[in-house]
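Hey L., structure's done. Input below.
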Amino acid sequence: MSVKVVCKNPDAFRDYEIVEKYEAGMVLMGSEVKSLRNGTASIKEAYVKIENGEAFLVNSHIADYKAASFLNHKPNRKRKLLLKKHEIERIEGKITLKGFTVVPIQIYFKEGIAKIEIGVGRGRQKEDKRDRIRAKEEKRRLERILKPRR
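Output:
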């Protein structure tokens, strides 16, 4: 099973505490697939919105594919996500709770098909982020101290 990662969301795990992850397909135009294969995409500001029982990826940027000429796509268009009905209902139930949101984690190709990994998470407070950074730095410092003794 070959997986080629196209882009990742660097802020997903820093800004959110991810509770559940889902893998979804995307409805794409041909020029979008070609552009993704070139690695020209960004999901840093993107989010997932559920409307009328369907999930959509909003505000993601997939750059124009130069060779597509006039048949090109709009870079920031809303893209439909392919999830099962029970998954959408479960996600919708979670986001109605206070503080939960759905963020894209990464876009990748799995066996030649474009997929997106989305996560349902709760936003972190500034203090929580500081505590995580402090704990990470402390762990690194201890590893540096213990390394010569090994």
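The beta strands are 3-8, 16-26, 41-42, 47-51, 54-58, 61-62, 79-82, 100-110, 113-123. The radius of gyration is 18 Å.

-- N.
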